[in-house]
Amino acid sequence: xxxxxGPRGARAAAVxxxxxxxxxxxxxxxxxxxxxPGEPGHYPTCPFLMLxxxxxxxxxxxxxxxxxxxxxxxxxxxxxxxxxxxxPVLVVLWGRWTLRAWSGGVPAGKSIRPAYVWSxxxxxxxxxxxxxLPFGEFLAP
Length: 141
Description:
Layout: H1 7-14, H2 16-34, H3 47-52, H4 61-69, H5 73-79, H6 81-103, H7 114-130
Helix pairs in contact: 1-6, 2-4, 4-5, 5-6
């Protein structure tokens, strides 16, 4: 006699992935909030920066998260505005994913229009280039 999973069980199983991602992200943020990335020796140097002397799009990202955890959004924007502005976007996308999983809707990856993904990628590349040019020095961490 097999036990079938009801709608509540299916919903609970569907939200395991988004909840797992939230748990992992929360643990990572808690770690960065507890271990200051601004102090030498706690985290490795960015390999791209070390090899080229140029900032990658993520340079300053850990310090941005640290500043946000400690309630300093102005410092966070000064360290890496791209990361600071993407965090709310990621939270909204995670929320949509969770709601869709709970309601049995379309998986989140299939609900994002390709034009948005390509636009985000283009913005990331422009940010990467501009932060390494003399007039974009204000974007450097």
